[in-house]
Amino acid sequence: EKRLCDRIKSIVLLDEGWTYPQLAHALLLEDDTIRRYHRIYLGGKEALLSKLYRKSLPT
User: Fold this and answer.
1) In angstroms, rounded to a whole number, what is the distance separating the alpha carbons of residues 14 and 56?
2) What single string gives the DSSP state of each residue in 1-59?
3) Who wins on pLDDT, 58 or 20?
4) Which residue from 14, 39, 50, 56 has the fewest beta carbons nearer than 10 Å?
5) How far apart are CA 58 and CA 40, in angstroms?
6) 3-state helix, strand, coil in the chain (%, to 5)
7) How far apart are CA 24 and CA 31, in angstroms?
8) Please, is 2 exposed, middle or buried when counting C-beta atoms within 10 Å of its C-beta (0-12, 13-18, 19+)?
9) Does 57 have pLDDT greater than 50?
10) Percentage of the chain modeled with pLDDT above 90
11) If you write DSSP's letter for every residue of 22-38 in order, what string do you get?
C-alpha cells in the first residue's frame, strides 16, 4: 500500500537528515503529513505501521 510505504520512507529519510519540506516535495505529500507520520512514529513504530490509523475528521 502506497500510504504505508510513504510512512516508512519518511522515517528512513528523516533519519538520514532529510527535512520535512524536502520529503514532502520528493514524496508529493504535504509537509504536515510528513510531520504527522514522524509524530506517530515517535509514539511507537507499531502505530506508524498500523493500517487502522486514519486522520481524525473534524466534528
Assistant:
1) 24
2) -HHHHHHHHHHHHHHTT--HHHHHHHHT--HHHHHHHHHHHHT-HHHHH-TT--PPPP-
3) 20
4) 56
5) 19
6) 65, 0, 35
7) 5
8) exposed
9) no
10) 56
11) HHHHHHT--HHHHHHHH
C-alpha distances in angstroms, 27 versus 5, 7, 40, 50, 59? 10, 10, 18, 20, 29
Q: How many CB atoms lie within 10 A of CB 58?
A: 4
Q: Name the residue type at position 1.
A: E
pLDDT, tens digit, for every residue of 17-55? Answer: 999 999 999 999 999 999 999 998 888 877 777 765 555
CA angle 12, 56, 14 (to 5 degrees): 15
Position 56 scores a pLDDT of 54
Distance CA 11, CA 56 (A): 21
